[in-house]
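Hi F.,

I've been meaning to write this up properly since the lab meeting, where we talked about keeping a consistent format for the predictions we share between groups. The idea is simple: the sequence comes first, exactly as it goes in, then the structure tokens exactly as they come out, then a line or two of notes. No screenshots and no reformatting. I'm using this chain as the first example so we have something concrete to point to.
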Amino acid sequence: MKIVVMGSGAIGSLYGGLLNLVNPGSVTLVARSPHVDAIRANGLIIKGVMGNHTVPIHAVENASEIDSADVILITTKTYDTENAAQKIRHLMETGAYVVIIQNGIGTETVVSEILNSDKVLRATTCMGALITAPGEVTITGNGITEVGSHYPENQSLVEEITDLMAAAGLNVRASDNIEGVVWTKTIVNCGINPVGALTGMTNGQVYGNEILRQLVIRLVDETARVADALGITLTTDNPVRYTLGTAKATSANINSMLQDLLAHKQTEVDFITGAVIKFARELGIETPISESVYALIKAIESRYLDKPLKKDEMIVSVDELFKAIIPETSS
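Output, unedited:
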């Protein structure tokens, strides 16, 4: 089985490398230089909680160099989804199906529309990984991967990719409620990621700080209200407890939003917190804490991306920001 990984950063390299370990020669990574150059020279080096491995693996800079595939994993940043989908059109003609492993909401719909195909699966991951050097990925957390599809006819494909990942040593399971899985993961991301990104703290440090923990709780409450109003069936009965438990269990993780800020890259906040805010506005639900952290993340981005904040991104005034974050007390 030929597997192509589009967007082989930390997460893509992790999945591609582990899959190639059990099926040598089956995986091609699509990534940027100097990551590709290092992999070609020395193999992909995997370190961390799943052991140390050097994996000889094929790596290219352009999907156009690949002539066929059976499975395509899209592990790009969410804002690169459309571009990635456009670049794999020719591979879909060879009978491939797509597995999207990303944060955020609705990317499977985007890919299905671009490719005019329902052979699209969606996955979420609680794996933690960092690119610690070109050609080297360090796994910091071996969390659950869940795979499903909005299209019932894809169930056999869901089981096929689940079996592949399980054989590679990944903690994986199939889901018949992938929308609930995605929203549950989004609630966790909305709660933890902006707080860690704004403070420069690991998940465990956020969890261990009482003030920040209360901020996480308020962010989770807002997001959960939106999910409930949309009729989403979450995979947890207690989103707050689930989010705090995730933060504690992944205490060493430097969340992806913080990694992006540290690297002066665009974050995925528009597709996580920003997406929730859009739904909330349509539903008439107030989300002042979410709007506040969203505005702050966008402000930080604008400083190094040279993209001044748009008027509609400046959601709250300074007075509104303080009112939202600091509860009123009686004198």
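Notes:
Residues 313-319, 324-331 have pLDDT under 50 and may be disordered.
Residues 193 and 255 are 6 Å apart (CA to CA).

If this format works for you, I'll send the rest the same way.

G.
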